[in-house]
Amino acid sequence: MRWIKKHLLQLLIPVLMALMVLPANAVQPDEVLSDPALEARARALSVNLRCLVCQNQSIDGSNAELAKDLRVLVRARLTAGDTDKEVMDYIVSRYGDFVLLKPSFSAKNLFLWLTPILVLLLGGIFAFRKMNMKPQESASMDLSIDEKNKLKQILDE
Known about the structure:
By secondary structure, the chain is mostly helical. The chain has helices spanning about 1-20, 35-45, 65-80, 85-95, 110-130, 145-155.
């Protein structure tokens, strides 16, 4: 009996470790569509949509109520016959570009995409100018003949 427990534990440890590595799915059984093709499309779309409560988690892996509502909305739109693009456009029109985990490059968010490049460019220009700047010439330290004579008198005293 002891031998069975030992070997069973040795078999279970890799299985448990593999389960910990797999991404979490928050999709409930009542949400799953009966058509496997539609369900696969729904999962593919859900992975690219941000949970607005959890922020950096997809709605496919979030247990938040809003994420569940979005998953149900995606599946409802797919069963209604919408294409993947129509579903994404519908959700973006309701929630904005923030709902996308990978926002698209557009005129509306051009500033957000270009800001890091501008900051690096301006920082590089500033650093280049600072490194190549000649030190300011200080006022001449040479003493006039009268000043030299006065200094010599002071030092001799």
